[in-house]
Amino acid sequence: MIKKLIVSLNNEMTVKEKEIANYILNNMEEILTLTSAEMGNNIGVSQSSVIKFIKKIGFNKFGEFKIQLTKELENIKQNKDKIHSEIYLDDSLEDISFKVFNETIKAMEDTLKIIDHKYFEKIIDIIKTSKKILLVGSGMSSIVAKDLEIKLIKIRIDALHYESSHMQLMKLATMDKEDLIIAISHRGETEDVIDVIKKANKKGIKVLSITSIEKNTVANLSDFNLKVISEETNFRSSAISSRMAQLILNDIIFLRLTQIDYEKRKEYIKESRDLIKKLK
Protein backbone atom coordinates (compact mmCIF):
# COMPACT_ATOMS: atom_id res chain seq x y z
CA MET A 1 0.00 0.00 0.00
CA ILE A 2 2.72 2.51 0.98
CA LYS A 3 4.76 1.75 -2.14
CA LYS A 4 1.64 2.10 -4.31
CA LEU A 5 0.74 5.43 -2.69
CA ILE A 6 4.22 6.81 -3.27
CA VAL A 7 4.29 5.63 -6.90
CA SER A 8 0.84 7.08 -7.64
CA LEU A 9 1.94 10.53 -6.40
CA ASN A 10 5.40 10.54 -7.99
CA ASN A 11 4.61 13.07 -10.73
CA GLU A 12 3.14 15.49 -8.17
CA MET A 13 6.19 15.48 -5.87
CA THR A 14 8.77 18.21 -5.40
CA VAL A 15 12.49 17.39 -5.48
CA LYS A 16 12.57 17.28 -1.66
CA GLU A 17 9.52 15.00 -1.54
CA LYS A 18 11.14 12.63 -4.04
CA GLU A 19 14.19 12.41 -1.76
CA ILE A 20 11.92 11.42 1.14
CA ALA A 21 10.04 8.95 -1.08
CA ASN A 22 13.25 7.26 -2.25
CA TYR A 23 14.49 7.00 1.33
CA ILE A 24 11.27 5.28 2.41
CA LEU A 25 11.33 2.84 -0.52
CA ASN A 26 14.94 1.86 0.17
CA ASN A 27 14.99 1.83 4.00
CA MET A 28 11.65 0.42 5.14
CA GLU A 29 12.97 -1.80 7.94
CA GLU A 30 15.31 0.87 9.29
CA ILE A 31 12.49 3.44 9.43
CA LEU A 32 10.67 1.31 12.03
CA THR A 33 13.42 2.19 14.54
CA LEU A 34 13.47 5.93 13.77
CA THR A 35 11.56 8.99 14.91
CA SER A 36 10.39 11.48 12.29
CA ALA A 37 13.20 13.83 13.38
CA GLU A 38 15.84 11.10 12.99
CA MET A 39 14.47 10.15 9.59
CA GLY A 40 14.61 13.78 8.47
CA ASN A 41 18.19 14.06 9.71
CA ASN A 42 19.20 10.95 7.74
CA ILE A 43 17.68 12.36 4.56
CA GLY A 44 18.89 15.92 5.12
CA VAL A 45 15.45 17.52 5.43
CA SER A 46 13.50 18.98 8.36
CA GLN A 47 11.17 16.99 10.62
CA SER A 48 8.26 19.11 9.38
CA SER A 49 9.06 18.09 5.77
CA VAL A 50 8.85 14.43 6.78
CA ILE A 51 5.51 14.96 8.56
CA LYS A 52 4.08 16.88 5.57
CA PHE A 53 5.12 14.06 3.24
CA ILE A 54 3.56 11.41 5.50
CA LYS A 55 0.30 13.37 5.43
CA LYS A 56 0.54 13.74 1.65
CA ILE A 57 0.54 9.96 1.21
CA GLY A 58 -2.51 9.59 3.44
CA PHE A 59 -1.39 9.23 7.08
CA ASN A 60 -2.35 11.64 9.85
CA LYS A 61 0.61 10.83 12.09
CA PHE A 62 4.11 9.37 11.74
CA GLY A 63 3.16 6.62 14.19
CA GLU A 64 0.20 5.62 12.01
CA PHE A 65 2.55 5.43 9.02
CA LYS A 66 4.95 3.16 10.96
CA ILE A 67 2.10 0.83 12.02
CA GLN A 68 1.09 0.35 8.38
CA LEU A 69 4.73 -0.13 7.37
CA THR A 70 5.12 -2.81 10.06
CA LYS A 71 2.08 -4.68 8.70
CA GLU A 72 3.38 -4.57 5.14
CA LEU A 73 6.84 -5.82 6.10
CA GLU A 74 5.25 -8.63 8.12
CA ASN A 75 3.18 -9.64 5.09
CA ILE A 76 6.36 -9.84 3.02
CA LYS A 77 7.98 -12.16 5.59
CA GLN A 78 4.91 -14.42 5.58
CA ASN A 79 5.01 -14.89 1.80
CA LYS A 80 7.51 -17.76 1.83
CA ASP A 81 5.02 -20.12 0.18
CA LYS A 82 4.68 -17.86 -2.82
CA ILE A 83 6.47 -18.99 -5.96
CA HIS A 84 6.08 -15.64 -7.72
CA SER A 85 4.52 -12.46 -6.32
CA GLU A 86 0.82 -13.32 -5.72
CA ILE A 87 1.07 -16.89 -7.06
CA TYR A 88 0.87 -19.70 -4.49
CA LEU A 89 1.74 -23.39 -4.63
CA ASP A 90 -1.93 -24.44 -4.53
CA ASP A 91 -3.17 -22.03 -7.23
CA SER A 92 -5.03 -23.52 -10.20
CA LEU A 93 -3.97 -22.89 -13.79
CA GLU A 94 -6.85 -20.41 -14.06
CA ASP A 95 -5.59 -18.59 -10.95
CA ILE A 96 -2.06 -18.44 -12.36
CA SER A 97 -3.27 -17.12 -15.73
CA PHE A 98 -5.38 -14.41 -14.12
CA LYS A 99 -2.66 -13.32 -11.69
CA VAL A 100 0.15 -13.25 -14.27
CA PHE A 101 -1.92 -11.08 -16.62
CA ASN A 102 -2.97 -8.75 -13.79
CA GLU A 103 0.55 -8.49 -12.39
CA THR A 104 1.99 -7.67 -15.81
CA ILE A 105 -0.64 -5.01 -16.50
CA LYS A 106 -0.03 -3.49 -13.07
CA ALA A 107 3.75 -3.37 -13.63
CA MET A 108 3.23 -1.53 -16.92
CA GLU A 109 0.72 0.90 -15.40
CA ASP A 110 2.97 1.64 -12.41
CA THR A 111 5.98 2.13 -14.67
CA LEU A 112 4.01 4.54 -16.87
CA LYS A 113 3.17 6.65 -13.80
CA ILE A 114 6.83 7.33 -12.99
CA ILE A 115 8.04 8.14 -16.52
CA ASP A 116 9.29 11.70 -16.85
CA HIS A 117 8.59 12.24 -20.55
CA LYS A 118 10.85 15.29 -20.93
CA TYR A 119 13.71 13.24 -19.50
CA PHE A 120 12.71 10.27 -21.71
CA GLU A 121 12.77 12.54 -24.78
CA LYS A 122 16.34 13.52 -23.92
CA ILE A 123 17.26 9.82 -23.75
CA ILE A 124 15.64 9.21 -27.16
CA ASP A 125 17.79 12.00 -28.63
CA ILE A 126 20.96 10.49 -27.12
CA ILE A 127 20.13 7.09 -28.64
CA LYS A 128 19.39 8.74 -32.00
CA THR A 129 22.67 10.68 -32.11
CA SER A 130 25.02 8.00 -30.75
CA LYS A 131 27.46 6.57 -33.28
CA LYS A 132 27.48 3.01 -31.91
CA ILE A 133 25.41 1.35 -29.19
CA LEU A 134 26.42 -1.64 -27.09
CA LEU A 135 23.56 -3.35 -25.25
CA VAL A 136 24.59 -5.10 -22.05
CA GLY A 137 22.51 -7.57 -20.05
CA SER A 138 22.91 -10.98 -18.43
CA GLY A 139 20.44 -13.81 -17.89
CA MET A 140 16.83 -12.78 -18.50
CA SER A 141 17.95 -9.18 -19.09
CA SER A 142 19.85 -10.46 -22.13
CA ILE A 143 16.47 -11.24 -23.75
CA VAL A 144 15.41 -7.61 -23.30
CA ALA A 145 18.77 -6.39 -24.65
CA LYS A 146 18.44 -8.64 -27.72
CA ASP A 147 14.91 -7.37 -28.36
CA LEU A 148 16.10 -3.75 -28.35
CA GLU A 149 19.10 -4.63 -30.53
CA ILE A 150 16.80 -6.09 -33.21
CA LYS A 151 14.45 -3.10 -33.08
CA LEU A 152 17.30 -0.59 -33.42
CA ILE A 153 18.95 -2.49 -36.28
CA LYS A 154 15.63 -2.43 -38.18
CA ILE A 155 15.78 1.37 -38.29
CA ARG A 156 19.50 1.49 -39.16
CA ILE A 157 20.85 2.36 -35.72
CA ASP A 158 24.20 0.65 -35.15
CA ALA A 159 23.44 -1.53 -32.12
CA LEU A 160 25.00 -4.77 -30.88
CA HIS A 161 24.36 -7.17 -28.02
CA TYR A 162 26.64 -10.02 -26.97
CA GLU A 163 25.63 -12.56 -24.34
CA SER A 164 29.29 -13.18 -23.54
CA SER A 165 30.74 -10.71 -21.03
CA HIS A 166 34.15 -11.16 -22.71
CA MET A 167 32.72 -10.08 -26.07
CA GLN A 168 31.03 -7.11 -24.40
CA LEU A 169 34.39 -5.95 -23.05
CA MET A 170 36.11 -6.53 -26.41
CA LYS A 171 33.47 -4.40 -28.13
CA LEU A 172 33.77 -1.74 -25.42
CA ALA A 173 37.49 -1.46 -26.20
CA THR A 174 36.59 -0.21 -29.72
CA MET A 175 34.15 2.46 -28.49
CA ASP A 176 34.61 6.16 -27.71
CA LYS A 177 32.77 9.20 -26.32
CA GLU A 178 30.43 9.39 -29.31
CA ASP A 179 29.02 5.96 -28.45
CA LEU A 180 26.50 4.71 -25.90
CA ILE A 181 26.16 1.76 -23.52
CA ILE A 182 22.61 0.61 -22.74
CA ALA A 183 22.75 -1.58 -19.62
CA ILE A 184 19.73 -3.66 -18.61
CA SER A 185 19.56 -5.18 -15.12
CA HIS A 186 16.35 -5.33 -13.10
CA ARG A 187 17.96 -5.48 -9.66
CA GLY A 188 20.94 -3.47 -10.85
CA GLU A 189 23.54 -5.58 -9.07
CA THR A 190 24.78 -7.93 -11.84
CA GLU A 191 28.58 -8.00 -11.57
CA ASP A 192 29.29 -8.40 -15.30
CA VAL A 193 27.06 -5.43 -16.12
CA ILE A 194 28.61 -3.29 -13.38
CA ASP A 195 32.09 -4.15 -14.67
CA VAL A 196 31.23 -2.96 -18.20
CA ILE A 197 29.72 0.27 -16.86
CA LYS A 198 32.75 1.07 -14.70
CA LYS A 199 35.07 0.60 -17.68
CA ALA A 200 32.76 2.73 -19.85
CA ASN A 201 32.83 5.46 -17.17
CA LYS A 202 36.64 5.51 -17.31
CA LYS A 203 36.53 5.94 -21.10
CA GLY A 204 33.97 8.75 -20.87
CA ILE A 205 31.31 6.73 -22.72
CA LYS A 206 27.71 7.61 -21.83
CA VAL A 207 25.66 4.93 -20.07
CA LEU A 208 21.88 4.53 -20.11
CA SER A 209 20.49 1.88 -17.77
CA ILE A 210 17.08 0.25 -17.38
CA THR A 211 16.59 -0.99 -13.81
CA SER A 212 14.06 -1.32 -11.00
CA ILE A 213 13.00 1.76 -9.04
CA GLU A 214 14.90 0.57 -5.94
CA LYS A 215 18.33 2.01 -5.20
CA ASN A 216 20.97 -0.03 -7.05
CA THR A 217 24.58 0.11 -8.25
CA VAL A 218 23.87 0.04 -12.00
CA ALA A 219 21.56 3.07 -11.78
CA ASN A 220 24.04 4.95 -9.57
CA LEU A 221 26.88 4.43 -12.06
CA SER A 222 24.79 5.42 -15.10
CA ASP A 223 24.49 8.83 -16.73
CA PHE A 224 20.82 8.17 -17.50
CA ASN A 225 18.36 5.73 -15.97
CA LEU A 226 14.89 4.47 -16.88
CA LYS A 227 13.05 2.78 -14.02
CA VAL A 228 10.63 -0.13 -14.00
CA ILE A 229 8.25 -1.03 -11.17
CA SER A 230 7.22 -4.63 -10.47
CA GLU A 231 6.58 -6.78 -7.43
CA GLU A 232 8.28 -10.16 -7.64
CA THR A 233 9.46 -12.43 -4.86
CA ASN A 234 11.15 -15.82 -4.76
CA PHE A 235 11.44 -17.01 -8.37
CA ARG A 236 13.27 -13.95 -9.70
CA SER A 237 14.68 -15.98 -12.59
CA SER A 238 11.27 -15.86 -14.25
CA ALA A 239 11.07 -12.06 -13.85
CA ILE A 240 7.71 -12.00 -15.61
CA SER A 241 6.29 -8.54 -14.95
CA SER A 242 9.61 -6.68 -14.88
CA ARG A 243 10.65 -8.21 -18.20
CA MET A 244 7.36 -7.22 -19.83
CA ALA A 245 7.64 -3.65 -18.52
CA GLN A 246 11.20 -3.44 -19.89
CA LEU A 247 10.03 -4.75 -23.27
CA ILE A 248 7.35 -2.06 -23.33
CA LEU A 249 10.06 0.57 -22.80
CA ASN A 250 11.88 -0.96 -25.78
CA ASP A 251 8.73 -0.56 -27.87
CA ILE A 252 8.36 3.08 -26.82
CA ILE A 253 11.98 3.80 -27.75
CA PHE A 254 11.60 2.06 -31.12
CA LEU A 255 8.30 3.77 -32.00
CA ARG A 256 9.50 7.23 -30.99
CA LEU A 257 12.71 6.88 -33.02
CA THR A 258 10.67 5.65 -36.00
CA GLN A 259 8.23 8.53 -35.64
CA ILE A 260 10.97 11.19 -35.53
CA ASP A 261 12.31 10.30 -38.98
CA TYR A 262 9.35 8.34 -40.29
CA GLU A 263 9.90 8.35 -44.07
CA LYS A 264 13.47 7.06 -43.82
CA ARG A 265 12.73 4.60 -41.01
CA LYS A 266 9.71 3.23 -42.87
CA GLU A 267 11.89 2.40 -45.87
CA TYR A 268 14.53 0.77 -43.64
CA ILE A 269 11.91 -1.46 -42.02
CA LYS A 270 10.45 -2.39 -45.42
CA GLU A 271 13.89 -3.23 -46.79
CA SER A 272 14.65 -5.47 -43.79
CA ARG A 273 11.30 -7.22 -44.17
CA ASP A 274 11.85 -7.79 -47.90
CA LEU A 275 15.33 -9.24 -47.35
CA ILE A 276 14.03 -11.63 -44.71
CA LYS A 277 11.24 -12.77 -47.05
CA LYS A 278 13.85 -13.77 -49.64
CA LEU A 279 15.44 -16.12 -47.12
CA LYS A 280 12.22 -18.09 -46.63
Name of the CATH class of the largest domain: Alpha Beta
Q: What sequence of helices (H) and strands (E) makes up the elements?
A: HHHHHHEEHHEHEHEHEHEHH
Strand segment count: 7
Helix content: 55-70%
Q: Based on CA inertia axes, which overall geometry fits?
A: globular
Which CATH architecture of the largest domain would you pick?
3-Layer(aba) Sandwich
Largest sheet: 5 strands, parallel
Helix-and-strand structural type: alpha/beta
Number of helices: 14
Provide the β-strand percentage band.
5-15%
The CATH topology of the largest domain is given as Rossmann fold
Unreliable residue runs: 233-238
CATH superfamily of the largest domain: Glucose-6-phosphate isomerase like protein, domain 1
- Radius of gyration, in Å, reads 21 Å
Biggest sheet: strand arrangement: 4-3-5-6-7
In total, the number of domains comes to: 2
Q: How far apart lie the N and C ends?
A: 51 Å
**pLDDT averaged residue by residue:** 88
